[in-house]
Amino acid sequence: MIRFSVLGAGHIAGKTAAAAAYLAGRGELALRAVASRDPARGAALAGRFGFETSFGSYRELAEDPATDLVYVATPNTFHAAHAKLCLEHGKHVLCEKPFTANAAEAEEVLALARERGLFCGEAMWLRFLPASRAIGEALRAGRIGKPRMVEAVFEVPVADKARIREPALGGGALLDLGVYPLAFALLHFGTDYADVAGRATLLPTGVDDQAAFSLGWADGRIAALACSATAAGGAGGRIVGTEGSIEVPMLVRCEGFRVAPFGGGAAEDVARPFECNGYEYELRAAARAVEAGRPECPEAPHEATLAAMRAMDALRALWGVRFPCDAAG
Ligand SMILES: NC(=O)c1ccc[n+]([C@@H]2O[C@H](COP(=O)([O-])OP(=O)(O)OC[C@H]3O[C@@H](n4cnc5c(N)ncnc54)[C@H](OP(=O)(O)O)[C@@H]3O)[C@@H](O)[C@H]2O)c1
Which CATH number is correct for 130-273, 3.40.50.720, 3.40.640.10, 2.40.240.20, 3.30.360.10? Predict the structure, then answer.
């Protein structure tokens, strides 16, 4: 059974640990360790969910012979270094979104994983949700005719957090929130977009506070997307076709959607409730990929991660948003 460990014991690590404990209860993986810079915090998280042990440094976890798969849950600009630390020690890696701070880092991490023959993937949980799969099925079945537009927003007032404000932590609304509307568009319209445009306002620290951006595809389909770290609109999306729309009231915690024919036909509500808290699907897919010796999950292939990172690089270049790590990248 895949022995699963967590690197970094912050907010999202707790949610993911809960999902891992759910899967462990079903015999789908084994809970090995939590690593934190603060040994007490690591031990507390490990104890809460029944991990076998905890470590007071990330290096000890990377060197742990009893760990197979590490989930990286540190701030954005540390993802590349922490993923590489684990890969260099022969560990498979599932890394939080955004996969890295820029596309050059993503390419470097994925090249290392390839070289070592290890699984490496982005924990873009939206891609793994049963509702996302059902949306794909509805689109392929022609339920809204020919898809033409995808519209999605994610607006949460989180700009008070250091990891959102600070360029050194890979801050900004785009990498934290905009990455979801972007993933939604790439998931349903494909990674082969032709161009990217957008505008943003910046925080005094120089990272984007909010942004409106769009992607275009060669056949004329368009994505109209937005994110804000100071507005409080929540997250939602819709895909609009020639005969109707798919309405997604919760873009990230998505447990269902509505298929709405244009012109008053009967709408259908489709429900795909979570088994646990929604993070179980990405963990299950990563564990299955490791077991099967696959380098990536079909739900979140490397190509999709790179397409997202390149789009975000292009947008940040337009807005003049730079991280200290960009220069080296
Ligand atoms: N999938 C989702 O739904 C979701 C939701 C929120 C965030 N995220 C992503 O998850 C990552 C972590 O976000 P979070 O909300 O969990 O943040 P957080 O609560 O601040 O936790 C981040 C953890 O990273 C570790 N860390 C290592 N170096 C650090 C440094 N220099 N400064 C701050 N923390 C450092 C710390 O763990 P230790 O001190 O324990 O080692 C810290 O607790 C981000 O990449 C974010 O984009 C994903």
Answer: 3.30.360.10
Low-confidence ranges of the chain (pLDDT < 70): 328-329
d(CA 13, CA 73) in angstroms, rounded, equals 6
> DSSP labels for 214-227?
EEE-TTS-EEEEEE
Instruction: For 119-146, write each residue's pLDDT tens digit.
Output: 999 999 999 999 999 999 999 999 999 9
Q: What is the pTM of this model?
A: 0.97
Measured torsion, CA atoms of residues 66, 69, 74, 76, in degrees rounded to the nearest 10? 150
The residue from 15, 91, 97, 146 that is catalytic is 97
97 is catalytic: yes
Termini Cα distance of the chain: 37
CB distance 76 to ligand 1 below 6 Å = yes
